[in-house]
Amino acid sequence: MSHTICVFCASSNGVAERYFDQARELGEEMARRGLRLVYGGGQIGLMGAVARAMRASGGHVIGVIPGRPDWAELVFPDANEMIYTSHIRDRKATMELKADAFIALPGGIGTMEELFEIVTLRTLGYHRKPIVILDGHGYYEPLLRMLERAVSEGFARPSLRESYHLSDSVRDALDYIESHLSKQA
Questions:
Q1: CATH no. for residue 104?
Q2: Burial 76-95 (b: 16+ CB within 10 A, else e)
Q3: Inter-residue contact 9 to 50 (CB < 8 Å)
Q4: What is the pLDDT of residues 4-52, one digit of tens each?
Q5: How many helices (H) and strands (E) does the chain have?
Q6: Number of structural domains, the chain?
């Protein structure tokens, strides 16, 4: 059975090319390994880069996007499946249900919110799905320091550290996920 990986990432085109390179590498490698992508459904930013690389490499892409008329031009037209939801909250819930694991690439406030929600749900025991922060360029270092501070100052339990895996490469991220999923089978 093919596993589905939810990727959270930027919808901005205004980021450095190195982030696009890693997003494309992720899409290509996921397709090569026979993994499916579920993501926010956009065709711009890192979202579009991952999705285009997946499709160009023969991968299966599932987009999930709120059905707002003003977002119609943002929708990735080559997705194998496009699911329209009534609200952004429904979008996140749909992606979570369809996913066997999660990867967070760099992104803005929306990406961070998605990452925090899925980590929170895991720490509260609502799921045991693997979560990877793929940070090949140090983007998340300040956030990770803040999480460590939350633990050291008693605002979060030490188990927070085990709720996600930090990776600096696509290969390590996918190896971690595949290893975790094979143990659950």
A1: 3.40.50.450
A2: beebeebbbbeeeeebbebb
A3: yes
A4: 999 999 999 999 999 999 999 999 999 999 999 999 999 999 999 999 9
A5: 6, 7
A6: 1
